[in-house]
Write a sequence for this structure.
């Protein structure tokens, strides 16, 4: 997937950066959006995305996933960059969109609320230097960058949030070696559906 | 055989020792009679049982020791100078029905506190509490602990804030103490608490356990590091066994019914990998045989040959091999506790408070 650079007028877009500020929930670093894939609890979208870099190194994935802080998970990931899957640059945007779909599916109320609050405006992640996932400020009113995360968030908003269409289950990406802890990643479902169907335990019997 | 039965007797002789209405006492003869139901495999079954029972049977005395140690750990963890100070500030949940495990564990705690520390915790029931501890014996699917904790977390003990908020902001603490938990059930319980309340609950929930049944095998990497210290059969089974699985009305096949044949990587629970396979087959086939005797149009969907499990799970059962003196868990293989008139099966451990 190729993404080209764009220019945004800062006054016309929703900008997010800090997880503490308004729209902070759009960030992969935001807490409170836990995920579970293949029965493994993953504390943040960032941890899941970083883990996907290292499909052949489950111990690295585990070290990343065990971090409660998404920032620490990213820092741990940096230690192992040489073990990144070889096609990462080609697949990383697809992986990120899959991660975002899982985040939405498993946190629909909270995440769709933040996406709705963007009111259909362009979403831009602001960064000091990352012109790939985010955009940087070139002058007071202008942001320039590929803004890949913002654009994937807009796509997600378009596909599921505007129509209020919760994602019941997210299929794995059809690609070689999409692995978590040595196993193929399964279809991931909305936990509410799993709870309603008593997939975890039978509460009437407990 | 006699010698094996005598050794087993020494381990399990106090089973239901404090239960006036117990159906029978454990004797060497009873153990032999139970084993003989496995025909030519009788001696083998006892040999294997003796291999893992010392680690997995909790006698009443052992339970008291474990609870004593746990109370000291709790006192130390919270940093109280004395046990009395800890007890004054700590509430023990007492929410299960009178015939369930929690009240019995609380009565042991009462005994330990009175004899070892000269404290009657019931004298302090009404003092304001900071710490809340849920004691139980075994967490299998996680449903009971989840339900009881969720009920309390939704309540407002101070009349203003939900208890969940006070736990998350660490005004109060919440802990669970178990003799044993199953890793899959524990993870399921954690996940549902996180989704129902707050992700932070995973971090603030304090957990004390003495034994872990490692049965979380969905992903290869985790599975390779699990002991599989339970009955978890391999796929190579008889036609009857495979037909039984196929016939189950259970839509959730995300929990594997079979363990990979190369796991566990190192056998630490049974006496050898071959003996594990053999015992698993014996318990599984005998369990199916027992279930086939049930004459009803609406069989209980939780009942499986290797022990009760979640209705929706398409598996042979939980396969628990952990036992306590007070009552056998229904998540253990049926061969240990099945006791139905006309089914011609003598259980090793009689069930205290449930029928079929």
């Amino acid at each position: 997937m190729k993404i080209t650079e764009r220019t945004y007028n800062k006054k016309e877009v929703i900008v997010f950066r800090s997880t503490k500020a308004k729209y902070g929930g759009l960030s992969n670093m935001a807490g409170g959006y836990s995920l579970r894939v293949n029965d493994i609890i993953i504390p943040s979208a960032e941890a899941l995305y970083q883990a996907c870099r290292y499909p052949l190194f489950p111990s690295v994935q585990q070290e990343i996933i065990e971090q409660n802080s998404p920032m620490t998970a990213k820092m741990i990931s940096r230690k192992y960059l040489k073990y990144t899957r070889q096609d990462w640059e080609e697949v990383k945007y697809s992986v990120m969109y899959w991660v975002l779909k899982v985040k939405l599916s498993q946190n629909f109320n909270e995440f769709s609320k933040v996406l709705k609050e963007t009111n259909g405006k362009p979403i831009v992640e602001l960064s000091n230097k990352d012109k790939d996932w985010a955009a940087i400020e070139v002058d007071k009113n202008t942001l320039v960058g590929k803004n890949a995360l913002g654009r994937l968030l807009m796509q997600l908003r378009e596909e599921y949030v505007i129509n209020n269409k919760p994602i019941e289950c997210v299929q794995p990406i059809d690609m070689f070696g999409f692995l978590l802890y040595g196993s193929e990643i399964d279809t991931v479902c909305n936990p509410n559906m799993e709870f309603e169907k008593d997939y975890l335990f039978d509460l009437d019997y407990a | 055989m006699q010698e094996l039965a005598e050794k087993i007797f020494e381990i399990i002789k106090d089973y239901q020792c404090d239960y006036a209405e117990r159906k029978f006492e454990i004797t060497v003869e009873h153990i032999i009679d139970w084993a003989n139901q496995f025909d030519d495999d009788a001696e083998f079954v006892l040999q294997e049982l003796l291999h893992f029972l010392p680690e997995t049977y909790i006698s009443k005395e052992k339970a008291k020791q474990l609870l004593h140690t746990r109370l000291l750990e709790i006192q130390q963890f919270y940093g109280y100078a004395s046990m009395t100070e800890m007890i004054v500030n700590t509430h023990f949940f007492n929410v299960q029905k009178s015939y369930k495990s929690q009240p019995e564990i609380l009565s042991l705690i009462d005994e330990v506190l009175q004899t070892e520390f000269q404290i009657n915790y019931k004298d302090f029931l009404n003092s304001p509490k900071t710490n809340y501890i849920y004691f139980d014996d075994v967490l299998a699917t996680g449903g009971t602990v989840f339900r009881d904790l969720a009920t309390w977390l939704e309540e407002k003990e101070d009349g203003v804030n939900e208890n969940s908020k006070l736990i998350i902001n660490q005004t109060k603490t919440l802990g669970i103490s178990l003799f044993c938990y199953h890793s899959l059930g524990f993870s399921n319980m954690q996940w549902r608490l996180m989704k129902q309340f707050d992700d932070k609950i995973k971090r603030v929930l304090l957990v004390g356990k003495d034994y872990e049944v490692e049965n979380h095998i969905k992903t290869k990497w985790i599975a390779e590091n699990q002991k599989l210290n339970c009955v978890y059969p391999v796929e190579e089974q008889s036609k009857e066994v495979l037909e039984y699985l196929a016939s189950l009305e259970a839509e959730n096949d995300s929990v594997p019914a079979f363990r990979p044949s190369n796991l566990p990587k190192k056998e630490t629970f049974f006496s050898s990998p071959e003996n594990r396979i053999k015992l698993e087959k014996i318990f599984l086939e005998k369990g199916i045989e027992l279930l086939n005797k049930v004459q009803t149009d609406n069989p209980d969907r939780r009942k499986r040959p290797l022990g009760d499990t979640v209705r929706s799970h398409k598996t042979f059962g939980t396969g628990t091999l952990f036992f306590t003196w007070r009552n056998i868990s229904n998540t253990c293989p049926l061969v240990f506790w099945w006791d139905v008139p006309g089914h011609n099966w003598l259980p090793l451990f009689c069930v205290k408070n449930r029928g079929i």
